[in-house]
Amino acid sequence: MSDGEKTTEVMLPTGSDLVLSVSPHLSAADSVRRIMYKVLLALIPACVAGIWFFGWRALAVIVVTALFCIGAEALWCRIAGKPVLGTIADGSAALTGVLLALNLPPEIPFWICLVGAFLAIWLGKQVFGGLGNNPFNPALVARVGLLIALPAAMTTWTPPRGMGADSPAAAEFYSPSTLHKLQGKKVGLDSVTHATELDSVTCATPLGVVGTTPKILDKSFEAQQNFQAVDNNEMLWRYFLGIKGGCIGETSILALLIGGILLIAFKLINWRVPICYIGTVAVFTGLVNYFFPGVTPTPLFHILTGGLVLGAFFMATDMVTSPITPTGCIVFAIGCGIITSVIRIWGNYPEGVSFSILFMNALVPLIDRWCGQRPFGYTVKREVAK
Amino acid sequence: MGTLTAAVMVMAGIGLALGVVIGFFAKLFQVKSDARVELVTELLPGANCGGCGKAGCSDFAKSVVSGENPPSKCPVSSKEQVTAIALALGIDAGESFAKKAVVCCGGDREQTLRLANYNGVLDCVSASLVAGGPKGCAYGCLGMGTCARKCPFGAIEIINGLAVIHKELCVGCGTCVAVCPRNVIKLVPAEAEVHVYCNSPAKGPAKKQVCRVPCLGCRKCVRAAEGKFTVNGFRAEVNYQAPELPTAEDVQKIGCPTGCLLTAEEHLRIEMNEPEWSAGKDE
Amino acid sequence: MKYLELTVGAVLVYNFVLSRFLGICPFLGVSKRLGTAMGMSGAVIFVMTLASFITSLLYRHVLRFEYDGRTVDIGFLQVLLFILVIAGLVQLIEIMLQKLSPMLYQALGIYLPLITTNCAVLGAATINANNNYTVLEATVFGFFSGVGFALALLLFASLRERLDLAAVPAPFKGTAIALITAGILAMAFVGFSGLC
Amino acid sequence: MNKNVKTFHGGIHPACDGKSLSNGVSVQRAPLLDKYRVVISENVGKPPKPVVEAGACVKKYQLIAAADGFVSANLHAPTSGRVTGIVEVPGAMGVPVQAIEIEADGADEAGELLPALDWRNCDVALLRKRVEEAGLVGMGGAAFPTHVKLSPPPEKKVDVLVLNGAECEPYLTADHRLMVEQPEAVLEGAAISARILGVTKIYIGVEINKADAIDALNAHAAEFGIEVVPLKVQYPQGSEKQLIFAITGRKVPAGGLPMDAGCVVQNVGTAAALADAVIRGIPLVERIVTVTGEVVAHPGNWLLKIGTPVIRVVEWAGGVTEEPGKLILGGPMMGFAQKSFDVTVTKNTSGILLLPRTVAVTYGSSPCIRCGRCVAGCPMNLVPCALGNAVEAERFDLAAQNHVMDCLECGSCAYVCPAHRPLVQHMRRAKAEIRKRKK
Fold first, then answer.
1. CA distances in angstroms from A155 to A108, A143, C57, listed in the order given
2. In a domain, D352, yes or no
3. What is the domain-level CATH number for residue D131?
4. D16 chain-A contacts, CB cut-off 8 A
């Protein structure tokens, strides 16, 4: 710019377009929508693993359930007179849908997905006032609701890729007749009739096998060997990779861990929560296993089977339904761990993750109240004085 | 012993024992209670509006029984109800002044300038805490409806960004007066028909810059209707204590230059009939 | 071990409110504030324990006794007698509360007399009788049933306090959303089935 | 990162600090205007009483409004000229305020100055009186009369003076430039304050993003026995309670003042003004103000007279490149949004910030998803989201129970909130309602 006379006209503000709002006038770049999409991104590895192990049917379940959830949300918003597009765009309905789908068996009929979607979105979320107001995790409300109402459909598991009749411990997971059928294919029977029969091939989950194995209450050799068939190094490795029966999303621990690390990297969850949850289960089952080896398998088995890792990383860390303070989150995680272990070892249900998180959801207001943090500048004495 | 005898004896014995124990405890833990409080509470309207200055009707009933307040202190009760309470207690009903609230502002979205685009909580108290709110006039109604939400009788409606009171629903409890951050709502005698719809003590020119219907303090009304108006600073006020209140004819006769002196009916009619404000027209 | 089973059963598996669906009236009525819920919980635990103790005594020694070498069985009086005793007990508590804690008395309001006809208390007494529990067992069962009721009530009250601040749609405000919440809570308790 | 850098718990790290717009620009002296409007009620406490009539001629530095009571501050003429009267101007808080309008005669002729004092040897009472005469107020934001702050009641044992050079607000660089350009004035002012208070321990806390300021201060700090404490770049490092904790490790009790922890906190700008008042006898009539923002053509730091209209300052800074979406007096975290450009510079205006609409936050009404970021960010360890929910449901009893009165309104919670809830507005509402109820 030349010194001397400045001929360039100075543009002055008119003040006609001023916004009046409270301080602060800046904000961090994150938004609710971004958070939801990031969690969805972190779920992709688990989805991919589910599709790999259970085929296109799993993809269909995921997509259909997510769409049903979005539809249920849209319908509710329409009836309640809320902005439809704005509510759907925040991605929470899609996230609930994907989470619910990952908690369903791969061969679930689609009408059950529809019922689940309405359970999750309407009963689990919108009646409480929508996102942020629901005390219970919507996906878990739907899963538990379906599990209680339709136990047969919700516990019909199909074998994943790589779990053929000749796989290790096949006799544990398949009923004798199923095993027969599977082996029959190897010999090469009539392929047409066989294909239709194979459609109904079902298997048990590792936790299911454990649940039906009679407990041995002493420390004898039989007790030590009680779960040997499903709880050995080779099987654990297979569970870790995902070669086991179960819900779409809970098969591959590897994929879930990748997603979990993504969540931690995005700073969306407190890493202490999954660690505490899994750690509590490990300690609890470890103690029981140490004293009564015939009652429950080793801690590693408990970690690698069932929905524990999925629940610990994606459900117990749900922001809306978990405590707000870091201390509260730890208490919450430990509570989940204890209840999960108790249900798995002694309960009727082979799996307790959903129930435990749902139960702890109900405890959140109390945890929030009792695990609040002391404001800066307060000492215990002063607080009493107040 | 027959079954029947046993049954009768057992029942009678246990009943008797319980009766004795309960009677003993009732004597031991006797609590005195005043039945009159409950009676008065029943006779009160039960709106729990707090217009009397007490925390709800039962609290007020206590104060009536103790003689702290006359029954007429309840702004919601009709004369008959007040008399009933006074009769029940055998006390004097006390003098009653029926009151109504009036929003002393005519500055809706059309009339008063909005200086900035407000972005925040849609509540008058909250908005007034952010640079006094977006309205150009620092004394007028903010029109975000805090009073309307708080009114226990649904007497306040927000029309075009201005609170308007439906006189027939208002009981004069004063809830709105207490919550309004601008102190623009006033309790006036129920029979008053005419009000000055401006609350700004600022100078005329300053008001004119931001509002089309301010009171300019021209004293026309004071001159035309002797004793019925006073001018306080730069704003005229109806003299509600005067023996005679201004009437619709007075308004006609005065012919307020800005139109902020109106009868309540006229004010309501103007606000209701104005075209609905639309976003494009603002500023 | 028997007592552990009794405890877990009474508190979690066969929770009075969420599994047996007894005592719903105070469960819905006194759960708006956590403080009141705590008071109610205390009252119910007290009444249930005492009622279980006394009714099991009555059941074992009054409703069936030996007289003159014959057994006199007036078991048909069971319900009648239990109600009478429970009503008397609640009356006692009400009188004492009014004097000792007027605040709690005010807060409990109508629900305190309602314990009189509370099916949970009568339920506990009847379950004791049906299972032929000893007096000690019955007392333990009564106490932990009360604790189970208290657990459900506290959870529910804290949830309702949170829902107070939530943007619940108008048609669902109040009892509707409370019942939905209770339903989901009951679903969570299903997970405990089989523990004993 | 330096391990010795001190800080506090909680707080946030704003991604865009905007300081580079103006932190390299030296302080410029503003040209003389023809009219100044000096706001009377700008300090905390009672406003001073005008002592000049309309039409009176005043000299620069002449007293125009005298303190009314102890918690009040003198006001002096920023230039020579004629008083036209008392007018109503829009105040920084949005409500109209009274101001003395002075028509400058262009001579900018100084009146009689107060005698210079030898602060090392003269009577402490004399120093304290001088602070009062010079109309000093806290220049960091609250405009609390400095002489009040420097007269703690005898039962409070004050042993530490903390100078606040943190300047944690994004965009603002006025204190930074002051410390770089006049480190001796800052340090000397601190030493004088310490003498008034009778304390020997003097710290000056500076965030480490102002390395040149730390170097400049360190060059002279030893002469005055002052320790320069580098602080972590973290908002709100400059909040009194957080600063005291970071530097001394003491915690100001809830509801208490810094003196309850034996500390007095003073802004560096106030210290420099104090040095001017004592050594040269100059009362407070001008201050350094940062004029900045993405839409300002030439952001910079200006030495402005009190009473300068903001629109003129923007003009000197080269105007704007586009119509601003927000005008803020102060910093972007705690400053006040304005409704018009008619506001004037006061003793506590640290910055004039013009933000485009794209940068300024738009608050929404989406609900809390309980992510807990506000809890992690709150320097007072509160649970802001719960407080916000309580206020939305108008449960002020609940808000009070959860310590809303301890809120600093620093805005950390609202900054990190992914739902962009106007949490600070909720806090203010709660505080206002609770105060109203206490009455």
1. 9, 11, 47
2. no
3. 3.40.50.11540
4. 26
The structural domain count of chain C equals 1
B18 close to C (CB below 8 A): yes
pLDDT number for residue D228: 95
Domain boundary among B58, B89, B120: B89
Average pLDDT of C90-118?
A: 76
Number of compact structural domains in chain D: 2
Q: Please count the structural domains in chain B.
A: 2
Nearest to D415 among A26, A373, A377 (CB): A26
D336 touches chain A (CB under 8 A): yes
What one-character-per-residue DSSP string does B77-132 give? S-HHHHHHHHHHHTS-------EEEEE-----TTTB-B-SEEES-S-HHHHHTTTT
d(CA C118, CA C24): 9
pLDDT tens digits for C111-130?
777 666 678 888 999 999 99
pLDDT bin (cut points 50, 70, 90) of residue A146 is very high
> Who among D88, D94, D363 is closest to B131 (CB)?
D94
B187: helix, strand or coil: strand
Domain assignment present for D290: no
- Give all chains having 3 or more CB-to-CB distances under 8 Å with chain C: A, B, D
Chain B nearest-CA distance from A19, in A, is 5
Residues D377 and D237 in one domain: no
Residue B41: CATH number of its domain: 1.10.15.40
Q: Are residues B220 and B104 located together in one domain of the fold?
A: yes
Q: Select from C68, C85, C95 the residue whose CB has the most chain B CBs within 10 Å, as the one to mutate to test that interface.
A: C95
Hey, is the C-beta of A19 within 8 angstroms of any chain B C-beta? Answer: yes
What is the value of pTM for the model shown? 0.89
What's the token pair of residue B168? Answer: 């027939």
Residue with tokens 């993809």: A59
Tokens standing for residue A232: 């050995």
* Listed residue (B200, B188, B196) closest to B241, CA to CA: B188
pLDDT of residue A288: 94
Nearest CA in chain A to D411: A24
Tell me the average pLDDT of chain A. Answer: 88
Q: What is the pLDDT of residue A383?
A: 44
- CB-nearest partner of B29 from C63, C67, C98: C98
Q: What is the pLDDT of residue A380?
A: 59
Most confident range, picked from B33-37, B269-273, C67-71, D75-79? D75-79
Q: Is the dihedral of CA A343, A344, A345, A349 positive or negative?
A: positive
Q: From A381, which residue of chain D is nearest by alpha-carbon distance?
A: D253
Q: Say if D71 falls within a structural domain.
A: no
Where do the structural domains in chain A lie, given as residue ranges?
32-154, 164-202, 214-366
Regions in chain D scoring below 70 on pLDDT: 1-4
* Domain assignment of residue B121, given as a range: 99-274
Q: Using CB atoms, which chains have 3+ pairs under 8 A with B?
A: A, C, D
Whether D80 is in a domain gets the answer no
Domain that holds residue C70: 15-190
Write the pLDDT tens digit of every residue in B39-73: 888 888 877 777 777 777 888 888 888 888 888 78
| Residue B119, in any domain of the structure | yes
* CB-based contact, A29 to chain B, within 8 Å: no
Whether a cis peptide bond, with omega within 30° of 0, leads into D236 is yes
Flag whether residue A18 sits within 8 Å of chain B, measured between CB atoms.
Answer: yes
Q: Give the domain-ending residue among D236, D258, D280.
A: D280
Shortest CB distance from B126 goes to which of D95, D336, D425?
D425
Range of the domain at D379: 373-438
Q: Are strands D81-90 and D57-58 parallel, antiparallel or unpaired?
A: antiparallel
Answer positive or negative: Cα dihedral of A261, A315, A109, A304: positive
Q: Is residue C26 part of a domain?
A: yes
- Regarding whether B105 and B66 lie in a shared domain, the answer is no
pLDDT digits (tens, 9 = 90+) for A242-260: 999 999 999 899 999 999 9
pLDDT of residue C113: 74
- Say yes or no to pLDDT of A2 above 50: no
Question: How many whole angstroms separate alpha carbon C177 and alpha carbon A123?
Answer: 10
